[in-house]
């Protein structure tokens, strides 16, 4: 018997039934539209389509409650999968900081690394990856938290190359680029987005002419670690994000393709739908943690954009 196949927006479909048994014709009910797709079917379909090792769905909400739900779901995933001596990376994101604050105290030898850093100093107390490491260490005193001494930005490509070729930097970056598990989010380019927040800082210190709309107009639908990508998953290049991002999308893609790694994207909300679709298509994750409302919108958008 053939296996059911998934068609976005129309539900699981099994083999066609055979002809009805002989007898008087039955009254035909009025034609009806397909029933809404059940949540487990959406999860299974997207997980299969994008080779996800897991897809966790939390209760839909808005505002701070959504952050709390996503953080709690990510914390549960972390505790359920982290192992002794794992190398775990945390990015700069409110969702990730909320996640760590939802972790109950435990004891396990492990190493924790930042995989992004703040461009805007004012964000340090809220969304810094280092703030997440401090929170984690307070919950797990056996955690070895590491600092990556990257500058806020690089003025030139040669400056970046010289820095990355330092022996101490090569050592720790080798560990960061080989984490067993990482937690990060994705961003958009609208009002209130990460790029909107850092625009003033970038204009003052990196590029006076930079406008995030340049990325959007060039086809960017989202960013991970400040690195932009298109809705089809194509990695986009731009000198501004390259000047201050230190784990790029190629590294996320490589690690996500390995079955022994947990590359966990935690994101939800209307503004994250297209960034999630682009990240799935780009292969920048192998675990997705989102809310039910966002997941349904992602499935619809993914089907509509084909």
Structural account:
Helix content is 41%, strand content 15%. The chain is α/β, with parallel strands linked by helices and 306 residues long. It has a single domain, classed as Rossmann fold (3-Layer(aba) Sandwich), CATH 3.40.50.1360. The chain has a 7-stranded parallel sheet, sandwiched between helices. A two-stranded antiparallel sheet has the order 1-2. Helix 3 links the parallel strand 4 (87-90) and strand 5. The longest helix has 19 residues, at 63-81. The chain is globular, with a radius of gyration of 22 Å. The two termini are 29 Å apart.
**CATH top level assignment:** Alpha Beta
* Fraction in helix: 40-55%
If you compute it from the alpha carbons, what radius of gyration comes out, rounded to the nearest whole angstrom?
22 Å
**CATH fold-level topology:** Rossmann fold
First and last CA, distance? 29 Å
Q: Give the strand line-up of the largest sheet.
A: 3-11-10-7-4-5-6
Proportion of strand residues: 15-25%
What is the number of beta strands?
A: 11
Structural class: alpha/beta
List the SSEs and their pairings.
Layout: E1 5-7, E2 11-13, H1 39-49, E3 54-58, H2 63-81, E4 87-90, H3 94-101, E5 110-114, H4 124-127, H5 129-139, E6 143-145, H6 157-164, H7 167-176, E7 181-184, H8 194-205, H9 212-217, E8 220-224, E9 227-230, H10 239-244, H11 249-256, E10 262-266, H12 273-282, E11 287-291, H13 292-304
Parallel strand pairs: 3-11, 4-5, 4-7, 5-6, 7-10, 10-11
Antiparallel strand pairs: 1-2, 8-9
Helix pairs in contact: 1-13, 2-3, 3-5, 12-13
Region (Disordered): 1-33
Family: Belongs to the SorC transcriptional regulatory family.
Biased composition (Pro residues): 16-28
């Amino acid at each position: 018997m053939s296996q059911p196949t998934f068609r976005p927006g129309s539900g699981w479909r099994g083999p066609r039934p055979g002809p009805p048994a002989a007898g008087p014709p039955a009254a035909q009910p009025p034609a009806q539209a397909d029933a809404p797709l059940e949540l487990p079917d959406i999860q299974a379909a997207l997980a299969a389509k994008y080779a996800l090792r897991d897809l966790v769905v939390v209760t839909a909400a808005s505002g701070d409650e959504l952050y709390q739900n996503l953080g709690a779901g990510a914390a549960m995933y972390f505790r359920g999968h982290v192992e002794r001596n794992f190398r775990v990376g945390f990015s700069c994101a409110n969702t990730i900081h909320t996640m760590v604050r939802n972790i109950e105290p435990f004891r396990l030898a492990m190493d924790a690394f930042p995989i992004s850093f703040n461009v805007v100093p004012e964000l340090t107390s809220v969304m810094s990856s280092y703030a997440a490491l401090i929170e984690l260490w307070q919950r797990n005193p056996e955690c070895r938290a590491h600092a990556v001494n990257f500058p806020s930005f690089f003025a030139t490509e040669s400056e970046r190359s010289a820095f990355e070729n330092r022996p101490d930097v090569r050592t720790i970056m080798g560990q960061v680029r080989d984490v067993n598990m990482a937690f990060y989010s994705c961003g958009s380019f609208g009002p209130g987005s990460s790029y909107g927040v850092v625009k003033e800082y970038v204009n003052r210190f990196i590029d006076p002419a930079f406008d995030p709309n340049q990325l959007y107009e060039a086809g960017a639908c989202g960013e991970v670690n400040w690195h932009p990508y298109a809705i089809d998953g194509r990695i986009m290049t731009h000198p501004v994000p390259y000047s201050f991002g230190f784990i790029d999308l190629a590294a996320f893609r490589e690690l996500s393709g390995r079955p022994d790694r947990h590359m966990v994207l935690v994101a939800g909300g209307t503004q994250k739908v297209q960034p999630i679709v682009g990240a799935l298509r780009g292969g920048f994750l192998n675990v997705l943690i989102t809310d039910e409302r966002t997941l349904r919108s992602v499935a619809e958008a993914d089907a509509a954009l084909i």
